[in-house]
Amino acid sequence: MFRFAHPVFLIFTLLSIGILVYHLVLKKQKYASMRYSDLSLMDNLKSTSRLREVKLLPILRALAILCFVLALAQPQSGLVSQEVTSEGIDIMLILDISGSMRAEDFQPQNRLYVAKQVIEDFISQRQTDRVGLVVFSRQSFLQCPLTLDYKILSDLVKKVDFGMIEDGTAIGLAITNAVDHLKFGKGKSKIIILLTDGVNNAGEIDPITAANVASAMDIKIYTIGAGKPGRAIYPFRGRYISLPIELDEKTLTQIAQITDGKYFRAKDEKGLKEIYAEINRMEKTKIKVKEYVQYEELFGNFVFFGLIIVLGEAVLTNTRYRRIP
User: How far is 197 from 226, CA to CA, in rounded Å?
Assistant: First the structure.
């Protein structure tokens, strides 16, 4: 960044430009005359350096004045630095990896495959938020604790697959596990994003009870029900079978309401992406940026060049372009 601390002095640059124009265009130079008995002797003489004096010396004077005027305007070169402050959010992602997530109604892939891709995209958009991952089926475990290392988290999301836990759907247990890891977080807010496609049928903790615990700790839960209404195609022993979708939307809605969150229904891949994008907008971390500028004074450079030009003019005036009295 470059600026002049006292730009009013730049008005005087017109003076130096005026001097230059005056000497080069308007002023008629007068030269000392000498008497000759025969002026014809001068006809064959070429122009001398004295004629060049008419242009060079005034140019030097004008440039010197310009340098001094710019120095008075106090030119400065600034280095811009920024201080970024933010209070990140603590986010715990909960992902259902039960057998029903094999359904291929999110064509051309199954629900788990698509969910992992969308979650990875969601993670890539975080900046200062700590994000963790809990996976569940009949049991629940922490796949990744709250972290700012999004690369490691994304790698762990990729490794999530069927068969890691005995089949089942323990929604209440998964929420409790996530709450347990969020309660010591230092984020300005704490949220859970729960994605499931089933009905709670395992675990010792009821989903509503777990939601009340989360609410008591000021943890908001966004719930996402995955799957198209009706029936879905599932791979089974080398062939496909059609089974009705069992999704407890009532319970998922209650969980969201108890914790001041929101329930979403994802019927396809596009819908799931839009849901995570909406949550991303609602839970955007506020970042404050303060800008500082440190200026370096440059007027000394212009003074130096001005003095060099003045010295050069003085030398030329008393040597090469010296006038005969």
Answer: 5
pLDDT at 322: 67
Rounded CA gap, 225 and 214, in Å?
Answer: 19
DSSP class of residue 87?
-
Percent of the chain with pLDDT strictly greater than 90:
46
| The dihedral formed by the CA atoms of 118, 120, 122 and 124, expressed in degrees to the nearest 10 | -150
Q: What percent of the chain has pLDDT over 70?
A: 77
Strand ranges across the sheet with 75-86: 2-4, 75-86, 287-297
Maximum pairwise Cα distance, the chain: 129
Residue 101 three-state SS: helix
**DSSP bridge pairs for 293:** 80
Q: How far apart are CA 1 and CA 298, in angstroms?
A: 12
d(CA 128, CA 145): 15
Cα 266 to Cα 1: distance, rounded to the nearest angstrom:
49
H/E element, 79: strand 75-86
Whether 242 contacts 231, CB under 8 Å: yes
CB neighbour burial string for 37-54, b if at least 16 within 10 angstroms, e if fewer: eeeeeeeeeeeeeeeebe
Q: Would you give the DSSP letter of residue 25?
A: I
Q: With contact defined as beta carbons under 8 Å apart, do 285 and 54 qualify?
A: no
* Inter-residue contact 277 to 224 (CB < 8 Å): no
Instruction: Measure the CA angle with vertex 197, ends 194 and 200; round to 5°.
Output: 80
Residue 83: enclosing H or E segment and its boundaries? strand 75-86
Residue 191: CB partners within 8 Å, gap ≥ 6? Answer: 89, 90, 91, 92, 219, 220, 221, 222, 261, 283
Give pLDDT tens digits for 134-157. Answer: 999 999 999 999 999 999 999 999
